[in-house]
Fold:
Amino acid sequence: MILNQNNEYAALLDACVLAPMPLCDTLLRLAEYPSFYRPLWSDEILREVGGVLDKLGYSPQQRQRRIDAMQAAFPEATVKLPSKLDSFNCPDEKDRHVMAAAVRGQANAIITQNVKHFPSQCIEEYGLLCQTPDDFLVHQFHLNPPLIADKLDQQTAVIRQTREYLIEKLRKVTPQFSELLRKYST
Structure:
């Protein structure tokens, strides 16, 4: 694992991994003390999350409560974007702000479902990795399986469900991670 200059692993979380509640909750629980990494996002990413939540049927109050809770739990996660994004070259110009936030926040990785939007020739010069949430969570699991299990048990306690329920909810977007959890739980 390569650490940033602050000796901590930092991951920029794209809107597509922050919108689905079970995945977002899992990713952010791993960033709580004792943490596996430092989460990063920008106001633009949170606006995108809000747009997705609108499409999912969240009320404006629910959407704002969720974004406010994320910002309150991780006030240091918000990265200010530079005024010009032209120097951040991505195949999809709409993703320049994501790369800019990752660079500005000294991220080690961008966690996204849209890995094709961040090909290696665009991110390597910044020392960034681009990972799916599945790959990222598999890596985190191998760092400390008992702590991952404890954090997921905390998550299931809050939603009043079982670990098996959560594993099933995560299976669509994190099949390898879900399989590791299933095997670990038996």
